Amino acid sequence: MARYLFIESRDPYDSADSPHFLEMVKGVGMRNGGATLFLVQNGVLAARDGALHSERYGDLARSGVNVLADSFSLRERAIGTVADGVRQAEIDNLVDLLMEPGTKAVWH
To answer: Is 5:97 a contact under the CB 8 Å cutoff?
Structure first.
C-alpha cells in the first residue's frame, strides 16, 4: 500500500488554498489509514500554539494524520510551542520519509 507524504511550505495567511490542501490531507489520511503532513518554511506559522488556524492540526492528528513541523523552520520564526497534534521533527526525518519505498509525495 502506498504511503502518502504531504509537504506544506505555504502558510494559510497568504495562501488561500491552504485550507483545501489540508482537507485533501485529512481525506487521504482517513481513507488510507494514515498519512503524514510535514510542515516546512512558512508552513509552520499556523502550527504555533494559539495561532489562528492551529486547531486544524489537532483535527488532522485525531483523524489519523501524523503532523510534523521542521524544527529549523520553527526556530527561524521564533516559534517555541506548537499546537496540539503537532510534533517537532528534523529535516532528516523528511528525507527518510521520502526515501521509504512506496511513498507518494505531494508538495504544496
So the answer is: yes
For 43, the grid coordinates are 508552513
Tell me the β-bridge partners of 48: 82
**Domain range for 49:** 3-107
Strand-pair partners of 71:
none
Spatial strand order in the sheet of 3-8:
86-89, 65-70, 35-39, 3-8, 103-107
**Tens-digit pLDDT profile for residues 39-73:** 999 999 999 998 888 899 989 999 999 999 999 99
What's the N-to-C CA distance of the chain in angstroms? 23
Number of domains in the chain: 1
